[in-house]
Each structure stands twice: as C-alpha cells, then as structure tokens.
UniProtKB/TrEMBL annotation:
<keyword id="KW-0472">Membrane</keyword>
<dbReference type="InterPro" id="IPR003439">
    <property type="entry name" value="ABC_transporter-like_ATP-bd"/>
</dbReference>
<feature type="domain" description="ABC transporter">
    <location>
        <begin position="347"/>
        <end position="593"/>
    </location>
</feature>
<dbReference type="Pfam" id="PF00664">
    <property type="entry name" value="ABC_membrane"/>
</dbReference>
<dbReference type="Pfam" id="PF00005">
    <property type="entry name" value="ABC_tran"/>
</dbReference>
<feature type="transmembrane region" description="Helical">
    <location>
        <begin position="67"/>
        <end position="87"/>
    </location>
</feature>
<feature type="transmembrane region" description="Helical">
    <location>
        <begin position="170"/>
        <end position="189"/>
    </location>
</feature>
<feature type="transmembrane region" description="Helical">
    <location>
        <begin position="255"/>
        <end position="276"/>
    </location>
</feature>
<dbReference type="InterPro" id="IPR036640">
    <property type="entry name" value="ABC1_TM_sf"/>
</dbReference>
<keyword id="KW-1133">Transmembrane helix</keyword>
<feature type="transmembrane region" description="Helical">
    <location>
        <begin position="29"/>
        <end position="55"/>
    </location>
</feature>
<dbReference type="InterPro" id="IPR017871">
    <property type="entry name" value="ABC_transporter-like_CS"/>
</dbReference>
<keyword id="KW-0067">ATP-binding</keyword>
<protein>
    <submittedName>
        <fullName>ABC transporter ATP-binding protein</fullName>
    </submittedName>
</protein>
<dbReference type="InterPro" id="IPR027417">
    <property type="entry name" value="P-loop_NTPase"/>
</dbReference>
<feature type="domain" description="ABC transmembrane type-1">
    <location>
        <begin position="32"/>
        <end position="313"/>
    </location>
</feature>
<dbReference type="InterPro" id="IPR039421">
    <property type="entry name" value="Type_1_exporter"/>
</dbReference>
Amino acid sequence: MKKGTDRAVDGASKGTFKRLAAYIRHYKTLYAGLGIITLVKIGLSLSIAWFLALVTNAAVYGSEQSWPTLLMIGGGILVGEVIVHYADQVLRTKASASIRKDLREDTLNHILRLPAKCTDKHHSGEFLSRMTSDNQAVGEAMGTTLFGLISNPLLALGAFIYLLTISWPMALLCFAMGPVMILIGGLTGKAIRRSAAGQQEAIGEATVYLQDVFGAPSVVKAYGMERRTFTAFLQRSREIFGWEMKSARIQGGSASASAFAGNLMFVGAIVAGAYLVHIGNITVGSMLAFIQLMNYLVMPFTVLPSMWAGMQQGLGAADRIFKVTDAPAETEELLEDNAAVESLQELRLENLSFSYDTEGGNETENEQTHEGKGLKDVTLTAKAGETVALVGESGGGKTTLFKLLLGMYPPQSGRMLLNGEDARQMDLGQQRSHFAWVPQEAHLFSGTIRENIADGKPEASGQEIERAAKMAEAHDFILEFPEGFDTKIGERGARLSGGQRQRIAIARALLRNAPVLLLDEATSALDNESERKVQQALEQLKKGRTTFVIAHRLSTIQGADRIIVMEKGRAAETGTHAELMTLRGRYFDLYQAQLRETQAEHLDTVPVS
Ligand SMILES: Nc1ncnc2c1ncn2[C@@H]1O[C@H](COP(=O)(O)OP(=O)(O)OP(=O)(O)O)[C@@H](O)[C@H]1O
C-alpha cells in the first residue's frame, strides 16, 4: 500500500463533502424531489409487509377486508412501486449526471487556465483521469450512493418502528444485531476503501503509460519496443488485478460475515415468531410481516459498508479533482479569443531574467547545481520588420525566451515593453495578441485542414483560409486530397507528412496576421524539397513582421538584422552575421563547425568515378 494512497483516502474529508454540497445546491429541487421519492419508496416497502399481514390474516382468520379491497390495495402498491422505481432511477441518474457535468466543465475551465509552470509538471494523462474516471466516481457517489446511504438507514428505522408495534422485545432483539453488522462494516470498510484507492491509482498509472505508448506507435515499432512495452504493461495490469482480487477478498469476507449474521437473525426470527404465534401472542399475518420487516432491518446493514466505501472512493476522487482546481490559475476567467493586434513598432526586453528552479519554489537547492536553467539579464530591442535570430547551444534558453514573450512564464526580474507599454500592465490575452507562434512541432489538432488553419483566426472566411494556405505553399498538396480543405488530418496530423504539418502550422500563423512572429525553426528535419517549400512559406510569413527565429542552420539567418548567441540563459554575443564573424567568438566557432559539417557531407555525396 502506498503512502500517497493512504493520504488520498484519509484526505477525503468533510471539507470535500462540503465543497460537493455546493454543487448539490444548484439542484435543490431535484434533490428535494429525490428525498420525497425516497420517503415514498420506504413507505411502499413497509406497506408490503403490512399487506402481507392483511392477506395472510384474511386467509387464515377471515378478516374485515374483503378480497376485492385486498386486490385493490395490492394493485395500488404494485403501481406505486413501478412509478416510484422509474422516477427514482431517472432522477438519481439525473442528479449524478448533473453533478458530473458541472464538475467536468469546472475542471476543464480551470485546467485551461493553469499556468505553464503547472501543466509542464503534470502528465496530460493525469488531467484526463481527473476529467473521466474521477469525475465518474464523484457522480456515482453524489447520486445512487448518497441516496443509498440515506434511504437504507431510514428503511431500517421504519422497519424497526413497525416491528415495535408487532412485538417490542423481538424488535429490540433484532435491532441489537445492528451493531454487529456495523462492526463488520467498520472492520472491512477501511480496507475496502484502501484497496479501491490503490486500484484507482494503479489504473491511473496504467492509463498514463498507455497514453504515451498509443501516442507514438511508430517509435514503439521503430525501436522494437513492442515486447518491452507489453511486459511493462503486464506489470501494471497485474498490479490492477492484484488490487481487484484484494478488494474481492475483503468484500467477500464482509459479505459472508454479514450474510451469516443476517441468516442467523432470520432463522432466529422465524423460530421466535413461530413461538409467539404458538402461544397466541401474535397472528400468523404479523409473523409474516415480522419476517419481511426483519429483511428490511438487516439488508441496509449488509449494503451500507460497500456504499460507504463507494462514498469514500467518490470523495477521494473529488479530492484529486479539487487538488487540480485549487492550483492557482493564471487568469480569473477563460481568456477571450485574442485576435492579433494590427501593428507593433517596437519590442524591447530589459534585463529579463527567469529561472525554472525558483519558479518551482526550491531556489536554494538548485541555484548552484542547475546554473543556467532559464534566462539571465536578456536585453534587446526589435523594431517593426526586423528579424532577430536566436542561435546557440542546446539548452541555452532560446525556447525559454519564446515562453516568456508569450507570457507562459512571468519574468522574475526585468521587463518586456510592447510599444513602450510594460507587458505586466496588460492581461495575458492582450500580451499574446502581439504574437503568432510556429512551434518546432506543428501541434495540430484532430479535425480538418480547414479547422486547423482557422485556429489562427476563428472568424476567417474560406477565401482568407485558402489565401493563407497558398502563401504557406500548402494549397497544392491540400487539393491533392480528395476532400481538399475538409480532409481530416488524424490524431495530431498523423495523415500528413512532417513538412505538410509544418506548412499547415505556418498557414495558421499567417492567418493570425500578428505583428511579431515567433518561429521555432524545424526545417533541419525535412528533406530538401520540403525544406525549400517550408523556407519559401516562412519568407512570406516574415514579410513586414518582426520575426524572432530560433535557427539551427546558420545558413538560413545570415540576413538577419540581429543574431543573438544564447548560452546558459545569457545573450553571450549579439550582432549581425558580419559583425559576429569579425568578432571571432562563439558564433564564429559555431559557423565554422557547421561549414565543416556541410563540406564533409558534400564530399560524402560527390560520386567517385
Ligand atoms: N519546464 C521546464 N522546467 C524546468 N526546466 C526547464 C523547463 N523547460 C526547459 N528547462 C531547462 O531550461 C534550459 C533552457 O531550455 P530551453 O528549452 O530554453 O533551451 P533551448 O535553447 O531552446 O534548447 P534547444 O535548442 O535544445 O531547443 C534547459 O536546461 C532545460 O533543461
């Protein structure tokens, strides 16, 4: 048993229930209706015992009730049962589904507003589990389980009161079995809760693992990872099985102990009832009613432990959901669609500094060990239409600079000025409306090509989308698909080539038409023809815009207005290609190294005749 699981179970507190009660309050009428139906259901159950006594006494002793009256009462009870069961089932499901819907929507609303510092740390599978299996568990707890927990004790109480009217010593004797049942439930309840939580955790881990595997089937195949993947999953699958068996054994033990106690009581009641009839203390009808009522008294105690476990499981799931929704969000509300601003004369960074380690909250430990994880004192100015190239070693901080420009992380010191206005004075949507970002991986969404391009500007007309596709050199290949712009591209664009995906991403950025373009160049991964097309598309995109480009091939950025060599988060060198070559520093070394590589490649490809 993992400690985390213990905490998750014990953490399912009154506070959690209070928070869920706030959701219930939105459906006061529905829950009040369900309360009434529960009472009617209990009344109907008890009336069956009463009816049993009436019919038996009519048969044995000939009572005042005529047979037609008895038939009408029986029919009435039956019709009532049908109506009440239907309403109960539908309304309980409605209650569950309503809570699940609200919670699901609130959870997504919050996840979408979480800052990058939080989303970077969590696996997307964890968020998915909160939205699906945990959501399901909470819904069940707040519907069927909650009303089961209310109606069963009420039914037992009703049966007890009725029993008192038949024979109070017997009623008290039966009720004395209650604590035995509660003891059995208490002994097993916690174990059931723990194994259920362990099971949920194991399922969560397996889901996260499978999500990674299913997300990259080609890598699994290319690296021959099938067996390893299968073996790794077997372990997880068997862990789930182990927890399930543990639950089954505990629940089996609990059920058989409860059944034994229940049967003992049942047999005892029949014998005692028969004796009371024999000595003329009660009628035969009362004895049958007594036996039926005893069922109502015993049954709740047998089902309550597993219902209580279900409630704890639901509260544990709610706790996990609330942990996500309690994480501070970066905005109060979901941002509006942030249409791009029209122009930007100047973007200026002044001594911008940022560290992932201090952002994570463990500054002292990491300050010496992870020097350079972030940005330090970056200062630069980019005017409208200028191109600033970021080059340098892997891990130098180039992507981090993009993240800060986009407001994914706040700078810890220094500032960013957009047309002289401090970005800290703007809301995040406003800040982001200055940028169009072409990430290294295209990050397309399932849906059609049209929908993906339109993500750049949701209200764009068909013509605008086609124009963007033409400028991005994507129009021709799009029309080669039978369904053209309405082609579904598959999960993350699986039906497109790498170059095609990038050109769609470029078309998306073109359509956005923002004054600053952030380009994480990934052309090195493409073949020459694709690269040429993507480069052409990029040239279109850069026209008239301020462009920040992360360049891996120095040959593509020689015309840049400014080249910045990033090293350990600092701008180690800044200048034009010519200036930096004259400087004979890091850029010069990088350039020479790439030149040698290119020449070696060229020599390798010259045919030997
Ligand atoms: N979310 C994160 N949390 C903690 N550290 C991070 C995070 N993202 C990046 N880093 C670290 O910050 C440093 C700078 O990373 P960054 O992605 O900016 O480098 P880069 O210059 O873009 O590298 P590359 O050229 O390889 O893409 C690296 O040491 C990296 O490990």
